[in-house]
Specification:
The chain is α+β, with helices and mostly antiparallel strands and about 400 residues long. The protein has two domains: about 5-240, Bira Bifunctional Protein, Domain 2 (BirA Bifunctional Protein, domain 2, 2-Layer Sandwich), CATH 3.30.930.10; about 245-390. It is about 40% helix and about 20% strand. Strands 1, 2, 3, 4, 5, 6, 7, 8 and 9 form a nine-stranded mixed beta sheet that branches. Helix 3 packs parallel to helix 4 (about 135-145) and helix 10 packs across helix 12. About 40% of the residues are buried.
Length: about 400
Amino acid sequence: MNRDEIVRTFLDFYRERGHRPVSDSSLIPPPGDPVLFTTSGMHPLTPHLEGRPHPLGRRLVNVQRCLRTTDLDEVGDRTHLTVFEMLGSWSLGDYDVAQSLRWGHQLLREGFGVEPDRLHATVFGGDGQLGPDRVSLETWAELGVPVELTRGEDNWWSNGPTGPCGPDSEIFVWTGDGPPRGTPGTDDRWMEVWNHVQMRYHRHDDGRLEPLRQPNVDTGMGLERLEMVLGGTRSVFEGDGLRPWVRGVGGLWRLDEVPLRQVCDHLRSGVVVIGDGVRPSNTGRGYVLRRLVRRVLTTLWRDDPSRTLSDLPTEPIRHTLDGFGQQTGVGEVREVFGGEERRFRELLRRGRPLVRRRRSRGPLTGEDYRWLHDTHGLPRDLVDHLVGELG
């Protein structure tokens, strides 16, 4: 299945079971939300998970664009992306997690044709406040899916240190060649695809858990990961959303596999962020965009300082804007990338002699880093890059 077929199959399955589709939201949360970007499908629905009635009812389904900076350093492997799409379903005080797991298993097996021996599940095993999730454990056993209990926070989901949270059950799919081996904890070819969360609690600043007004079920499945599973490919970078970037960037510059993936991910993510109205700055969302672009440039210039983002082909930029339904023009994206490239080149030009002088006295200290940042605007990761240039 390609991306559109996967989305259609997912939405139709839940529509047939009484779920109403919710429109995709921007990466930018509404005013007053302290989080910089939408990080999950449940994020825009937080007030309704806490008890506010939703105008479309108690069963919802959607596809939501998400951005997570927590995974930034893992980008470059087979499965992690900065911006990704999440397939989500919700029960707002309606059916329980057992029903959610049964439907999830049915969709994977019958709707998407995933072989039963390629499935494995993990379940919350309890901690100092709550006992193990026996309902999910028994449901997976009834369905014949291998399942294991985990300890601590491995099967606990929250969108931050406070707010809605609860135990979850994670579904893994075997992505290796040959028959499955080991477990998700012993072999990384088991890839997490779908998470079913019992959103039943609100965590307070002091760590105390208070039951929500209604028990909810919130599920999220990475679209790009599911596309990888169904396509039998080696990584998410071979799917519909990333393939034009790999083709365009790979045809322009010779990069090893991991740097190529990082550059493609960050450029695509930058396009989506720009398309949602963000522009580079030194704080907040603008700094995230700036960091993405500068990480790309740092990687490209490590081998060849003459490389420039002005050489980027139009096709992947247009493909991404169209795929996310954004009205920003390709020319505007190029202007943003070009302006940030010029600023970064100038910053490097000014920064090299400063770092060289400080480094000549010995290893940089915390005071050196503070002076370079506060006086000259050189962030620590850039200083470390310049130190690396000096050997």
